[in-house]
Structures are given as structure tokens and as C-alpha cells.
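@channel sequence for tomorrow's demo:
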Amino acid sequence: MMNRIQALREDFKALPTALKTALSQTQREFVTVGVFSMVINGLMLMPSLYMLQIYDRVMISQNDITLLASTVLLVAVLALVGAVEVMRARLLVRTGIKLDQSLSPSLFSACFAAQQAKAQSNPTQVFTDVTQIRQFLTGNGVFAFFDAPWFFIYLGVLFLLHPMLGWLGLGCAAVLLGLAWLGHRLTAAPSKRALDAGIELNADQLSKFRNAEAIEAMGMLTRLRASWWQRYQDQAHAQAHVDHVSHTLSAVSKFFRYTQQSLSLGVGALLVIRGELSPGAMIVANMLMTRALQPLDLMVSSWRMLMTTQAALQRVVKLFNAHPERKPGHLSQTPFGQIEFKAVSVTVPGRTEPILNQVSLVIPAGRVVCVVGPSASGKSTLARAILGQWPEHTGDILLDSAPIEHWNSQSLGQHVGYLPQDVRLMDGTLAQNIARFAQLDSDQVVAAAKTAGIHAMVLSFAKGYDTPAGEAGHLLSAGQRQRLALARALYGNPTLVVLDEPNANLDDPGEQGLLQAVTQLKAEGKTVVLITHRQPILDISDLLLVMQAGRVAQFGPTAEVLARMRPTSTPTSAA
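C-alpha cells (generated this afternoon):
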């Protein structure tokens, strides 16, 4: 027993900090629930004493006063039990909500980090897992664990009434525990397979729905639906197997419960016939045995939910361990914009070759740098690394001679503009998207829109800046989304601006607007890192960086790099 307690302590110490903190904050509530359970189980001995009083005293003495007094006392005790059970249930509900609220902020950060690292296809699954944990903690199944220790007290009373009754209760408990063990053996692995298959199926469905336009346009729906149907069938069959085993065990448990009640009455009657037990004690023994075995029976019926909750907890722990909450950096001043890489290598899980391989370079503050190179050369990864979006890397990424990890990301973000390659706006108005969903400053919103050259475009909409963008900006064209994202990157007069393929979807007016914006940023002394495949932007850049297979192939003043490249290729082909 002591070894098991020690093991539990070690398991608790090994839990992620966020989970330990959340559980520690609810420790008092769980202790209170334990006290309530102790009161309830102690008071539930009263009905047994009442039956013993009725059969062994009142029916013999035929004393109405004793009957009335005993009945009034019993009703009062049962009313108290009901009140305590209500308080216990409400406390558990509040505890579950408190646990959820304590855990969710850290969970959101972990999911955010997992999405940034592309480590999971559906990191938000853990929010469903936390809901599952909360529902288990507030459901009937958890009561079984608080009531289970009272089995030994009820069993002790049965032994006091008669050893045969005690041994019968012990045997019945062994059978119920055996059913629980058998249920675990038969359903643990199939339940995990069914659950994993369900999660993969949901992720697959979401992926297909996100690409609905391409699937329909290119006639892929029939083939993809067939592959989805096969996955669906596999998951359904796996779940059906688990349900079959679970229902079978539930039926066996129900059969045994009914049989146990009859056996306890039969053994009690035998002892009464032999004169070793009174009729009242026979009834009491039946009630006590039912009450003693109730938590074990509840454990058997709740075993499937327990395994589901355990799997959910394991996924939450796995996410926290893979993406622990980072301490915020202490630097919060306005950066000058100098960027330095010292032998930086970046990779992702499941890939052996690094995306960036020993990259070293210095970008002075106030310079416009164009990054070119073939596909998969590491250009977008370089852009994300500059902004500290790759926490797992080797080497040093410095901003103003300080490691990027030392900068407070929230404070730094106010001085940074970023336009990702895959532009996704958020559900809100155009003004809210440009203002990064901060408190709206109309002057700054209009200034950013004018710098990006979209002020006239926005005013052409019926609602102007109050026009809804729709989820992921689907109400706008690709070019409009990109130009709006450029305005968002320029909002707040940032010191460091990183633009990843900002002209990929732009027409000629949009291209001219981008050139004007970069020219203005250059005149204002901002640091601009711009990934491009277009020639015009190169003409206004100070430095040119050529990436090749994750390494720096060329880096220096734009004119010098172009001169070195010209004998072998044109700038456009090099890009």
C-alpha cells in the first residue's frame, strides 16, 4: 500500500506544471467532497439500524412511540443525507469548472505552440479531452472512488452480524472486481484503437471540408468519399466491438447484482432457521451488502468512461510535455531591428534533414533585405525564425544583440509586422483585422490602409471599414486578403517588418502599392525582410539573400550579389 502511495506521489511530481497547478488549486474541494462522502456513508448506516429496530424490537413490543420516534429520526437523517449529496454534487460541478478554467489558458498556449510547430493535425482535440475529464469528475463514476473505502466498514459490520455473511460479501466483491479487471483486459486496447480512429476520422473530415472547392472542381469527391467511408466503417466496427464487450459485461454485472441480493437473503434466512441470526439482522445484512457493493458495481459500470478519461488525460499530458509553457521574456523596449543568426539550424518532428542548416548572417537595422531561392530552400522558415516562431532550434537568433527568447513576445509584437505566406484573416470587420483586434484607433487603421494602398479599395465596399471579412477572410478575394494582411502588418508603425511572398496574389495596382509601402518603410528607417519571386522589389532592396537547401548561398549588397549571379542565371530564375 505504501509503495502504491509513493508511486502516486511520483506520478504527480511527473505531471506538467500547468496540470499540477490546476489539481493543487482544487485539492481543498476534493478533500471536502471526501468529507461529504464520509458523512453520507456514515449516515446511511441509519436505515439498517432502523430496520433492525423495527424487526427486533418494535414488532415484538408493539410500541407505537418507539416506532414514531425511530421513523421521525430516520426521515431527518435521510433528509440530511439528501442535502449533503446535493452539496457534494454541486461542489464537484464547481470543482470541474474551476479545474477547466485553471487549465484552459495554459492549454490554449500549448495548442497554439503545437499549431505553430505543425506537430499535430488537430491540437484543439485536447479541449474536448478536458471536457471529458471534467464530465468524469462531475459524474456518478467519481463517487464510486470516494465511497469505495467504506466497503471495508460495511464488510466489518457484516462480519459482526455473522462471519458467513462477511465471507459472502467478500466473495461478491471479488467477483465484481474480477469483472472490472476482465472489462479492462477486454476493452482497453480496442477502446484506444476506436478512440484514436475517431480522432483521425474527425481530422480527415475537417481536412476535406476545408478543401471543398478544389475537391468539387477537380472531381475528387467520389474517390475521397470512398476513402472516408472506409475509415468510417473501420472506426464504426472498432467502436461496435467495444460497445458489444461493454454491454455484455454490463449485463453480466446486472445479473450478478440481482443474484447477490437473492443470495444474501437466502444465506440470512438459513442463519435465521438455524437460530444464529434474527429476522431483523437478516434484512439489515441484505441492505448492508447491497450498500457495500454499490461502489464496486458503479466502478464496473463506469469503467469504460474511466478508460476514456484516462486516455484523454494522457493526451493532455503529452501535449503539455511536448509544448511546455514558456516563461515570457523580460525585454519589452522598442527594438532597433538588427537581426543576427549564429549557426542556426531548425528542424521539425518527423524530418531528419534540417530546414535551416547552420545559417549565419547579420542584417543591420533599417535595411531592406530580399530573400530569394527555390521552393523548399527554407525562406519561410527563415522568416518565422526571425520572429521567434521556432522555439526549438540550435544556434543563436539575436534581435538587437539579445536572444529572441529574451524578448517579451506580446510587447515585441506591437513593434513587428508580419505577412505570412498563407494569409488567413479572422472573423471580424476589416478595421478589426487591420488593427489586430486591439482597441480601434481609426487614424492608425486608415494610415496603415493608405500605406498599403488599400484605402480606396476599402471605401469601395458598401460598409467601408465595417465590412465583415468572414471566417478566414473567405468573403474577400485572395488579392484583397493579401493587401489587407499587408495593412495589418503595417499597423502601428512597426520597427521590424517581415513579408513572406507579399505579392504572390497581387495585380499591377497591388504590386505598385506594395512597392510604395516598402519604399516608405525604407525611407522611415524600418528593417524589412521580404521574401519574393518578383524582380521589381529587388531594385529597391539594400541586401539580397539567396537561400539554397536550407543554407545561405549568397548574401550581400543587392548589386554585388546580382553581379555574381548574372553569369549563371537571371535574378528571376534564382528566385
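heads up for whoever presents: Residues 1-5, 569-575 have pLDDT under 50 and may be disordered.
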